[in-house]
């Protein structure tokens, strides 16, 4: 927390108006944060994540931070319909549904139970995100018997030979509801980054996860390239 205005006035021999104007400019630029009833603080520098296939734990260690988790929920239950369809959709490039043991056809109406894990992810003990993930029990039975406080991707790869090899991510901006605000220690209505991640292991659907990130702690970086136009396209330009 920054000292009071009087300290700056006396130390730098400037007026209170100048102090307030400088502080206001720093708040507007994101360098400082004012918290009502508490004071003014130096803003945290958001961690930057690429859209690669690193797990949260790997990302935090790459930033020199200590990853951690708080388990909010760990159970087996029926997923939402869109997740059921995703898990039953078979290989990524195929319309053939996955077959359960016994080669019986998949029936979406049977509503198979899958592993459901909701965690608050921490960086050096500070909440960064909420991960609400579903995991395909056809491919990874008894997943919850493992240490889900740590990296799910490590468990999937090491114990089930289901390394995540590709993901489809969809990002959007949302406002924190009361539950999210409490878990992430932000104000209700604070901006969050919502990321839907559909993950595959060698073309097989393994994870459906919705994450909510604090925007003051996390930034998403994407590298986009443009394919070269072929000669026929260039000729028509």
Topology:
Layout: H1 5-12, H2 16-28, E1 32-35, E2 39-42, E3 47-50, H3 56-62, E4 67-77, H4 81-87, E5 114-123, E6 126-135, H5 152-160, E7 166-175, H6 178-184, E8 191-201, E9 204-214, E10 218-221, H7 231-235
Parallel strand pairs: 3-10
Antiparallel strand pairs: 1-2, 4-5, 5-6, 6-9, 7-8, 8-9
Report on this structure:
This protein has 237 residues and is of the alpha+beta class. The protein folds into two domains: 1-43, Winged helix-like DNA-binding domain superfamily/Winged helix DNA-binding domain (Arc Repressor Mutant, subunit A, Orthogonal Bundle); 44-90 and 111-220, Chorismate lyase-like (Chorismate lyase). Helix content is 24%, strand content 33%. The chain has seven helices and ten strands. The strands form three sheets. A six-stranded antiparallel beta sheet has the order 4-5-6-9-8-7. Strands 1-2 form a two-stranded antiparallel ribbon.
Query: Residue share in helices?
Result: 10-25%
What is the H/E string? HHEEEHEHEEHEHEEEH
Regarding CATH, which class of the largest domain? Alpha Beta
Q: Quote the beta fraction.
A: 25-35%
- In whole angstroms, how far apart are the ends? 58 Å
Radius of gyration over C-alpha positions, nearest whole angstrom: 23 Å
The total tally of domains equals 2
Which parts are unreliable, with pLDDT below 50 for 5 consecutive residues or more? 91-107
The average pLDDT score comes to 81
Strand arrangement, major sheet = 4-5-6-9-8-7
**Biggest β-sheet strands, sense, barrel:** 6 strands, antiparallel
Q: Please tell me the CATH architecture of the largest domain by its name.
A: 3-Layer(aba) Sandwich
Counting DSSP H or I runs of 4 or more residues, the number of helices is 7
- Structural category is alpha+beta
Q: In total, how many beta strands?
A: 10
GO molecular function: DNA binding; DNA-binding transcription factor activity
Keywords: DNA-binding, Transcription, Transcription regulation
GO biological process, one term: negative regulation of DNA-templated transcription
Protein name: HTH gntR-type domain-containing protein
């Amino acid at each position: 927390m920054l000292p009071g205005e009087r300290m700056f006035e006396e130390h730098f021999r400037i007026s209170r108006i100048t102090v307030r104007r400088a502080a206001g400019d720093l708040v507007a630029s994101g360098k400082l944060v004012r918290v009502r009833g508490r004071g003014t603080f130096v803003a945290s520098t958001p961690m930057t994540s690429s859209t690669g296939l690193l797990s949260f734990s790997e990302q935090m260690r790459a930033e020199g931070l200590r990853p951690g988790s708080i388990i909010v929920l760990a159970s087996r239950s029926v997923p939402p319909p869109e997740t059921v369809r995703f898990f039953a959709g078979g290989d990524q490039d195929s319309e053939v549904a996955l077959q359960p043991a016994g080669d019986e056809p998949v029936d979406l109406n049977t509503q198979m139970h899958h592993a459901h894990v909701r965690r608050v992810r921490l960086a050096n003990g500070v909440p960064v995100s909420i991960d609400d993930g579903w995991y395909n029990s056809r491919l990874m039975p008894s997943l919850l018997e493992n240490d889900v406080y740590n990296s799910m991707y490590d468990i999937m790869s090491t114990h089930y030979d289901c390394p995540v090899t590709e993901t489809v991510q969809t990002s959007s901006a949302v406002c924190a509801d009361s539950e999210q605000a409490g878990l992430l220690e932000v104000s209700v209505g604070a901006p969050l980054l919502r990321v839907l991640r559909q993950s595959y292991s060698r073309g097989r659907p393994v994870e459906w996860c919705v994450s909510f990130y604090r925007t003051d702690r996390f930034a998403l970086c994407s590298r986009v390239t443009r394919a070269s136009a072929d000669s026929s396209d260039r000729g028509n330009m």
